[in-house]
Write a structure and sequence with these properties.
9 helices; 232 residues; Rossmann fold; 6-stranded parallel beta sheet
Length: 232
């Protein structure tokens, strides 16, 4: 690997930027593939670039046979994150299931009695107001955001920040009636129907979940569905 390619790969990983490295196993030529650009001395046709980009989105190393040699695409994605707004009863099983699914979990709740609960020991807990916390966390395309409080003062600013970000999943707990009212408030803040459609509400897959653990299963299931298969 050329020094310049290695340095750029290391810089992308340090910045937590998703990047794939395509290598021609015959010639040794390499190409760095980002979300919307490429860089390197390996020439690939558009179909190969698209296929490599798909591998990046799937989080999966792939190998292709081409007329000029075998091509190996190695994916370097930052760890996915799950941001939970509201240290409520559902948040505990959701945090643990999210961790088991490979997510770095952060719980946000400015209410001291909730955020200081020993139930969240071992997880990152922020006591800031959600808009401030989201500003510090900067959700990206590897981030899922779930709001659980039912309190507009907490959920709405978090959802607004999430919609302004590249978060791949945004979910909000609440009934259909609650969600309709929520959408009305967010529309008054200037969000359009396309932006509001990014919010999964009521949150989670419709599996008839009742208990906090079951609801957490439905949420992690929907996050997985969106991450792996696109919009649910």
């Amino acid at each position: 690997m050329k020094t310049a390619t290695l340095e750029k790969l290391q810089a992308a990983r340090a910045a937590k930027t998703p990047v794939a490295l395509a290598t021609n196993l015959r010639s040794g030529q390499q190409l760095l593939i980002y979300g919307g650009s490429t860089e390197g001395d390996l020439c690939l046709d558009m179909d190969m670039v698209v296929a490599a980009g798909d591998a990046l989105r799937r989080d999966e190393h792939v190998r292709f046979s081409t007329p000029v040699g075998e091509l190996f695409v190695q994916v370097f994605n930052p760890p996915p994150r799950l941001i939970i707004v509201g240290a409520v009863h559902i948040a505990e099983p959701l945090a643990r299931m999210g961790e088991l699914a490979g997510y770095g979990v952060t719980v946000i709740d400015p209410r001291r009695g909730f955020a200081e609960s020993q139930k969240f020991e071992g997880f990152a807990v922020m006591g800031d107001w959600p808009d401030e916390a989201m500003g510090a966390l900067k959700p990206d395309s590897r981030t899922a955001v779930v709001t659980l409080t039912h309190d507009p003062k907490l959920d709405d600013p978090a959802l607004a920040a999430a919609m302004r970000s590249k978060a791949f999943y945004i979910g909000a707990l609440g009934s259909k009636k609650t969600h309709a009212a929520r959408l009305g408030r967010l529309k008054e803040l200037g969000f359009n129907d396309t932006e509001l459609a990014r919010i999964h509400g009521p949150v989670g897959l419709d599996i008839g979940a009742l208990s906090p653990a079951e609801i957490a299963v439905s949420i992690v299931g929907e996050i997985t569905q969106v991450r792996r298969n696109g919009a649910a």
